Amino acid sequence: MAARYPRTVNDPSRRLPHVLPRAELALLLAPTYAESLSVDEEEARERVERALERPEVLARLHQGIAVALEAARGPRTDEDAQLDKLSKGLQARRARVKAVPATPGVSAVMVWLNLAIGLAPESMRETLAGRPGAAMLEAGLREVGASLVKDLVRG
User: Fold this and answer.
1) In the 8-state DSSP scheme, what is residue 91?
2) Would you say 19 and 90 are in contact if contact means Cβ atoms under 8 Å apart?
3) For 8, left (φ over 0), alpha (ψ -120 to 50), or beta?
4) What is the structure's pLDDT at 10?
5) What sign does the dihedral 92-17-107-7 (CA atoms) show?
6) What mean pLDDT value characterizes the chain?
7) pTM of this structure
8) Rounded to an integer, what distance in angstroms lies between the CA atom of residue 98 and that of residue 33?
9) Residues in contact with 93: Cβ distance below 8 Å, sequence separation at least 6, in sequence order
10) 132 neighbors 140 (Cβ within 8 angstroms)
11) Distance CA 48, CA 45 (A)
12) By C-alpha distance, which of 114, 106, 100 is closest to 149?
């Protein structure tokens, strides 16, 4: 399992895949995918689940959420307490997570998910691999992570 995560993800965030497994993450991302691509939420959830079957896709989304958690962590909050709060928020608010507002970065994430399941033109892979595209994708992953953390970790 250690090979699936980049070294920038710290040890406490290794709990994140257990707090946000693939099916839960697909449920949380479905509203954003549905709104961005004008599909119904059930189809969106199925497509996101298929994309998340790829370990590198799942790992990068978890990394974006881990970065957002770290940015939102206060000076007196430790990582475990924050992940516990995320887990409780997931149980209480998972069905009420809002779509992430559309930005170029979020659009890049949606294209990247479509590439993972073969629904985007292969030319988009080259676009996302270039410096501007890769930067936009990274920004989008951070935006998605920040939005999910905001919706799930309140109070």
Assistant:
1) H
2) yes
3) alpha
4) 47
5) positive
6) 90
7) 0.87
8) 11
9) 151, 152, 154
10) no
11) 5
12) 100
